[in-house]
């Protein structure tokens, strides 16, 4: 091969390479945390959109290796307390986020409003940042999860459903997430909703375990945590959610 041809091939290969499409540093969560329970809401129709989300080809969950290793430590921690982790979502491809954006712009589509945002007009979802064009999930080190009680064989009562759009989902609703103290202050709820001391305490069990093992919380969702030292803080990945080879 001539020098010019070789250089052309090299340039073409470099142009084709897309770091955002590379899943080599990702793992299937259940390969690392075999005790985790999966309920991948965006593969199903039971989510705030009401249909399967683009990019979710299989009901599995992926994370970067670093995030999955930290989640393994969380799993060991909560299992010693009598719980298992139940995962709703982890890595989310950019096309999934784009699907959310298109749905949010379609104001008349309110099929799932009674279940996920009954107190909100859909038109405010962008301005209140429930829907955004970029998501930490797409960087691969964020996970949405809850606890499963091994004694009762039921999901732990957190006082609200995953993906509820409202202040009732905030970690500081009815309590102080820094001191773990229940206050009962439900003044942020537009219709006077509340959670019990036990429900707040359950949220804090999950929060404490996640923070102990290197994750940071989100101020608006009790179920959402991101690895503090995430390996790809600027990369928004595009490959689909499916079992990795």
Molecular structure report:
The protein has 245 residues and is of the alpha+beta class. It has a domain at 25-163 and 223-227: Muramoyl-pentapeptide Carboxypeptidase, domain 2 (2-Layer Sandwich). Helix content is 27%, strand content 16%. It has helices spanning 3-16, 29-32, 65-79, 94-105, 113-116, 197-212; strands spanning 26-28, 37-38, 62-64, 83-89, 142-149, 154-155, 175-176, 181-182, 215-218, 221-227. The strands form 3 sheets. Strands 2, 4, 5, 6, 9 and 10 form a 6-stranded mixed sheet that branches. The chain has a two-stranded antiparallel ribbon with strand order 1-3. A two-stranded antiparallel ribbon has the order 7-8. The two termini are 34 Å apart. 36% of the residues are buried.
CATH class of the domain at 25-163 and 223-227: Alpha Beta
What is the overall silhouette?
A: globular
Order of helices and strands: HEHEEHEHHEEEEHEE
Q: Please give the share of residues in helix.
A: 25-40%
Q: What CATH architecture of the domain at 25-163 and 223-227 would you give? A: 2-Layer Sandwich
Whole-Å distance between the termini? Answer: 34 Å
**What is the mean predicted local confidence, pLDDT?**
94
Spans of at least 5 consecutive residues with low confidence: 3-15
What is the count of β-strands? 10
Give the percentage of residues in beta strands.
15-25%
CATH topology (level 3) name of the domain at 25-163 and 223-227: Muramoyl-pentapeptide Carboxypeptidase, domain 2
Number of helices: 6
- Biggest pleated sheet: 6 strands, mixed
Q: Briefly note the structural class of the backbone.
A: alpha+beta
Radius of gyration, CA atoms, in whole angstroms: 20 Å
